[in-house]
Amino acid sequence: MDKAQWMASLTEVMPLTPLDFTAPQGYIPIIFGFPFQGSPEDAISHLERRLARALYQWPCLAGQFIAGGRGVSPKLIYSRSVLTNLDVFPVEVFDAQTLLRPTFPWTFEQLKEEHGPAIAMDKDILCLLPPIVPGPGEGCHPVTLRVNFIEGGILLGLSLHHGIMDGAGVAQFLEYLGGSAQTVNLDFMTDYNFDASHDPTPNPSAPLPAATCKILAIPASRISSLRKEVLELLRASLDENAFVSTTDIVCALTWIFITRARSSRLEPNQVSHFAAAVNIRNKLEDGMEPPMGTDYLGNAFIRVLANSTVGELTGDTDAPVSESDLVMLVADAAYRIRTAIQTLDDPAQVRRHIAIAGAAEHPPSVDLAVRRAIDRGVAGVDASSWIGLGADVNFRIPGTGNGGKPAFVRRAYSPFPGAMSLMPRSGGTRGDANWEIWLALREDDMERLMGQEEMGRFLC
């Protein structure tokens, strides 16, 4: 069966929702690192079987994601009669390679000692991605898997298309892949910026500041202690029931450090937006359309924006701040983040967001409107949480040890200034594992951030 015949056989359509249409239309590449002393053939055979089982569980993921365009919505087509795309086009969906120097200069022990450095996670090497981005009406595989053997270990590169799946959906897919899960109106959006005259997309003809990525690690005990101080302050000054989560604290601290690093080129009254992606599966009313249970695989997230000013985030100073002053700054920023998230506790707000996505003539314009509002390359931060993505999944790969769990999980190297992700963490938001923050900034901003006295008090 050639590709044309196979495409013609894909006669079933998986309904996508407005939230799928307006999600970022690209892949989510995730890299899992395992120590390895076993047989490559056994590892490959095991992973191929597990991927095949996952595709049997969700046949739609064995089809094609067809990219949309202006006036044309994307769609997911598949067939239950064709076993899987793994059978038809194995080299496009699953492959394995051995990486030697100089192509890949790290051993697994070196990666582990350096805590899986961001610079090593090259998606073009470690992940199986299409050579060109599909244009409108063109298709690509929803899921691909690449097994990379390096000296002393395996780097597993899994890529899932964001147009059909969000972080919670990815977490569900990973549980099944590992074998541990069971069969399974524009005016309203004042936060968004629909003014097309302001485009945060870099001008390809203009020189761009050099950018880089780093992973910051903060001990859980340090975050726990800071949260205790913040809650005491908020409950004494605002409300005895005031609440911020541990994740809010980590995000607020990072937002402050980033803004302090950028402050020399920003105005004190300049607004900084912090965007948080919120899972709305547990926020939907019964009978709301589209129906989205907790086991829903597709996109069910909405980005909310917390707003502050550069001066409020830095304490109106670029000088080092005391521990007590930092607690006050973190309390203010964390409370702003929590307040923004809580706006989605109102079902009417959720319905309005979904209606906006459904009413857009050109769905990607909604995602672009959010990006304009965040302006992450200048003063904003675009945050996502990968905390639940696979750190505790037992992949059962023969020869890996460690109970089958990865030694580290990383996102691919992508230096887009202002992007941050909380990395997958053993125990989720609980436990004693370090909090790891993947962060992309301009090189000069990153240098200033790493030189901050306050930052030195927190990092491992």
UniProtKB/TrEMBL annotation:
Originating organism: Cercophora newfieldiana
Highest rank taxon of the organism: Eukaryota
Keywords annotated in UniProt: Transferase
InterPro entries: CAT-like_dom_sf, Plant_Fungal_Acyltransferase
GO molecular function: acyltransferase activity, transferring groups other than amino-acyl groups
A Pfam family hit: Transferase
GO terms classed as biological process: secondary metabolite biosynthetic process
Lineage: Eukaryota, Fungi, Dikarya, Ascomycota, Pezizomycotina
Protein name as catalogued: Trichothecene 3-O-acetyltransferase
